[in-house]
Amino acid sequence: MYVFVCHDDPDSIFTAIYDAWASRLGHKNIRILAKEPENYELFCEYIHVTTDAEKSRKVADTIRRRLGAAASPVLFQAIMADESGIAGSGRRSSSSSFSITKADALYRTLLLAFSMEYPDRVLECLGNPYVLYLFELSRSVQNEAHHLLGFLRFKELRSGILFSEIHPKNDVLPILGEHFCDRLPQENFMIYDGTRKLALIHRAGAFDFLIANASALDQNLIQNYSDSELEYQKLWCGFFESITIEARKNPSLQNQNIPKRFQKDTVEFQN
Q1: What's the CA gap between 201 and 259, in Å, rounded?
Q2: Is residue 17 scored above 80 in pLDDT?
């Protein structure tokens, strides 16, 4: 068995798929892992993949072209998922003694799709464990992105930039970027993923955004709010307190409506 090991990001996974496909080692003899294995297994040769933007682009373009607008977004979302949060992650395929992982599931799903007369209908094959696993991963990403579209809070910095900090389980920045670029096209804004130390940056008037490494982000700078922002925070928290009916407080229901992991990034729960 040949195991291609890559990093857990879309470009690395797509590069691993390209290298695995081009290796001619036999699809049944290949696995792809998006992380370093905890334990190396006997009779396996581990091949570490070097991320290549051009190879990644070719694989992504092929998926879009062959699988179309219906299936390709689901696969792209699936590889942005945090597998540890998926119920049943680590399950084993009936045809293999190895646990299913998202990188290998994507590889197997593409093999299945390209063997079909209509590749864009591959997501109808939910009886296939690899397709089902990708579908569950994609649903997890979509659900979290949907929550954040409602819970995300922008704060105006003294520089005039709108800033928001989130701590998602999954890599949802690309989904949030598409939404807020459409909603706030004339604003300079930044969404900081504190989990992955990545920042989504949008320049006023631009039609697109970029995602950059923000591990060296100045924490003092992003907490330097404008005077109007501080006033609005004070007013909002005052309103939040004023409508509270002490006798009808229901923390359990509140945690259902806005899960605790989102509360630390919302103003009304920080005071």
Answers
A1: 26
A2: yes
